[in-house]
Amino acid sequence: xxxxxxxxxxxxxxxxxxxxxxxxxxxxxxxxxxxxxxxxxxxxxxxxxxxxxxxxxxxxxxxxxxxxxxxxxxxxxxxxxxxxxxxxxxxxxxxxxxxxxxxxxxxxxxxxxxxxxxxxxxxxxxxxxxxxxxxxxxxxxxxxxxxxxxxxxxxxxxxxxxxxxxxxxxxxxxxxxxxxxxxxxxxxxxxxx
Amino acid sequence: xxxxxxxxxxxxxxxxxxxxxxxxxxxxxxxxxxxxxxxxxxxxxxxxxxxxxxxxxxxxxxxxxxxxxxxxxxxxxxxxxxxxxxxxxxxxxxxxxxxxxxxxxxxxxxxxxxxxxxxxxxxxxxxxxxxxxxxxxxxxxxxxxxxxxxxxxxxxxxxxxxxxxxxxxxxxxxxxxxxxxxxxxxxxxxxxxxxxxxxxxxxxxxxxxxxxxxxxxxxxxxxxxxxxxxxxxxxxxxxxxxxxxxxxxxxxxxxxxxxxxxxxxxxxxxxxxxxxxxxxxxxxxxxxxxxxxxxxxxxxxxxxxxxxxxxxxxxxxxxxxxxxxxxxxxxxxxxxxxxxxxxxxxxxxxxxxxxxxxxxxxxxxxxxxxxxxxxxxxxxxxxxxxxxxxxxxxxxxxxxxxx
Lengths: 193, 403
Description:
Chain A is an alpha/beta fold. Chain A is built from 7 helices and 5 strands; from the N terminus they run βαβαβαβαβααα.
């Protein structure tokens, strides 16, 4: 069974491809949706095409599926509509799957289940990464504010932090917001970084 | 507040939905309007069909196609409200456009002559021109086919129509993947401003009142939520009047320009809103005052004859097998009954009929209204044909399809 993954985010395609290989599928191709990818896909004659539901190239792909004379059997999204639950889970996970007509449901289901799990895992990873990035940026802001307090008021580092924290608590704001306000004010007053 | 999620594409003609949310019209009807932006029509369609959203800013032909089972999973869709009329622009790369009438106003105002010039330009081009269209089942594609065929150009043979979402058109022009495209604004103006293209034809000059985006629901959801649908339509009718008011254009353009909506400069967005289209970078604009309509002339009323015009074009291009059943289902996508119910107690003018002959109005015409007064603007097709919904087979047969 030939599976094509259309994806331009290398990371997600890798996560999905690894999963499929671990599950015993070996005819897997990753195609980035650029240039003449539709013609390339047409030549590959895949049984299943997996891609992100929001991928902007889906309109072009569907047009090819309508007009192609090269494809022996029609391909459509979720050929078997009987499993509402699975389709719902796929849409929620952001998976769109184009499946060749006549492929038995039992053969498609494990692929789709796997794609759903991997897409969800990837989305979680992405969210954690975003959170880590935000935390890092917050810490840098707080460090700068501490440095300003240490330089202008002669405080030690723990005291500078304690002052930021108590100010934030008194005003019902986040420490990072107080820190950002302090930096802005200091910049406006021509202070040192 | 009742929450409702509506999917849209980043286009100037999503204005009524965006204004309904941002200017408080939805809130006044006790609706918390959540707008979900998509990039491609396939994604928007799937969100609607599989229930991730309750409604969508949809190409009218796509709503008909999904209902007829022509675009992936078939689903009965219902469009009780037209979000706009007109608004599309065909642009081509300067090297191709060099073979056309050079004076922009003359070129845009005489689509018949320009179509024949275009046929000649295809012969002069070094290969078949590749024209980007936003979807097979888009008003853009249907109008482009109509216009090309009038000059004897066979769209499936003499040019290559390549499907691309509107927001990717400018990049595709830049990388020379396409020689031109037809899309909703601001994307034509964006390509023109970047010096990548010139305006070649305006939808408004091909069919002066062309059906475009419709607010689309799943039919079953529409039927089981009458109160919410009515409140939403009332909010949209007020938002549309606000959008059409020249006094609000600058504010509307600034609103649409936001990163979470169209994400393009307000100055570009304003061109379509004002009907002042710069056909080439740096040149004074051409006045096309009916370039994009939201409210006046009962724009939002879903004339069933317009759903049937779409059907007639599907038949013409072999996209659907003609049949009484398909024809009835296509007409039933447009829901004037819901429009009448929702806006019954408002001051929105209400047409008396639900069908009309399309393309028959040459000069502003007052028509029968149940309430208020309605003057229809000219709605002619540039070739002078009229579409009588009672004589669809004759209409389709009247086109000499060059095959």
